[in-house]
Design goal:
By secondary structure, this protein is an alpha/beta fold. The protein has helices at residues 19-24, 43-54, 74-85, 100-112, 142-153, 182-195, 209-217, 234-243, 251-260, 264-279, 294-303, and strands spanning 29-34, 59-62, 88-94, 117-121, 170-175, 199-202, 224-228, 285-289. The chain has one domain (19-230, 282-303): TIM Barrel, CATH 3.20.20.220. It is 41% helix and 14% strand. It has an eight-stranded parallel barrel, surrounded by six helices. Helix 2 (43-54) crosses helix 3 and helix 5 runs parallel beside helix 6 (182-195). 39% of the residues are buried.
């Protein structure tokens, strides 16, 4: 699809039906988070998005798969979903593996192809798997990427040089309500907002007390989407609670999953549904992680 260049002094309105329009109109957003399939193509994701759209979901956050294997990039998959299905696909972009020049080139190309929403993340290089010796580039982190996107929206590159056009990216960033250093996380999140981030998405949350406290300290009026990922069982919950920094899982949740035994996945889903039910009064929307279980996604949708 051809896109007409936008003059540098002509701001572009929010994309019709896109995330920016929903947030500007004050609509509660329900998005699904998907990852690229391990086969290196976008076919499975396209089938998933088509099925989720039939169930009423129309916004899709594409995030990198957490694996040290070759995979389709989140940006590439988001563009595929837009072009193949016309889906409102949001790309998570990581910075650890790209120079500023490469990031700019990717972003300008994606904008020319119609992508309008990007979530900034730093990311990490793989420590094992197919590429155990790969190191990061680290020219910018997620704060720097937010600033780069803001500059492109103003019609300038990373060196402040004028571009022929302005982009119209909606800029998102992640933050972690479960971070052990609350003050540090708040300060870093504020830095992302100052750099240009226009909305925030949490890391997956399993309780809401820390979320309430942290959002109260952030800039009022900033749209915040709550990320939910149902726990599959006690082993997963215990690992996240005790081995993964920045994850807060209540003791009551751990005990409930442990008591459930083989029924722990159903308990984890109901706990996530309970959080979803509370989200409408606390956040501007939710991001529901899709793990292949369509029935679980429907249960979460029903709780909203």
């Amino acid at each position: 699809m051809a896109h007409t260049a936008v003059p540098a002094d002509a701001p572009e309105a929010a994309e019709p039906g896109g995330l920016a329009e929903h947030l500007a109109a004050g609509r509660f957003v329900v998005a699904a988070e998907i990852v690229p399939a391990s086969d290196g193509t976008g076919d499975e994701a396209a089938d998933t998005v088509a099925a989720l759209r039939d169930r009423g979901l129309d916004t899709f956050l594409v995030s990198p798969r957490q694996t040290a294997r070759t995979q389709l990039s989140a940006l590439n998959l988001a563009l595929q979903l837009r072009q193949r299905l016309g889906a409102d696909a949001i790309a998570t972009m990581t910075t650890w593996d790209k120079t500023i020049m490469a990031l700019q080139a990717d972003l300008l190309g994606a904008h020319a192809l119609g992508l309008r929403t990007v979530v900034c993340a730093t990311g990490n290089p793989p420590l094992r798997g197919d590429y155990p010796n790969v190191d990061g580039i680290w020219e910018v982190d997620s704060v720097g990427l937010a600033g780069l996107l803001e500059g492109l929206n103003q019609g300038r590159d990373s060196n402040g040089l004028a571009l022929a056009t302005k982009t119209s990216f909606q800029i998102g960033a992640r933050f972690n309500p479960g971070a052990p250093d609350t003050a540090g996380e708040v300060a870093r999140t504020r830095a992302k907002l100052r750099a240009g981030a226009q909305f925030l998405i949490t890391r997956p949350v399993y309780e809401l007390d820390t979320f309430r406290r942290m959002t109260a300290e952030l800039a009022p009026g900033v749209p915040v989407l709550l990320a939910l990922a149902p726990l599959a069982g006690f082993d997963e919950a215990e690992f996240l609670a005790h081995e993964v920094p920045g994850v807060t899982i209540p003791e009551a949740t751990l005990r409930a999953l442990e008591r459930a035994g083989r029924g722990a996945a159903a308990v984890g889903l109901e706990l996530a549904a309970g959080l979803a039910a509370e989200a409408a009064s606390l956040a501007h929307g939710v991001v529901l992680r899709f793990d292949g279980d369509m029935a679980a996604m429907e249960r979460l949708r029903a709780a909203l």
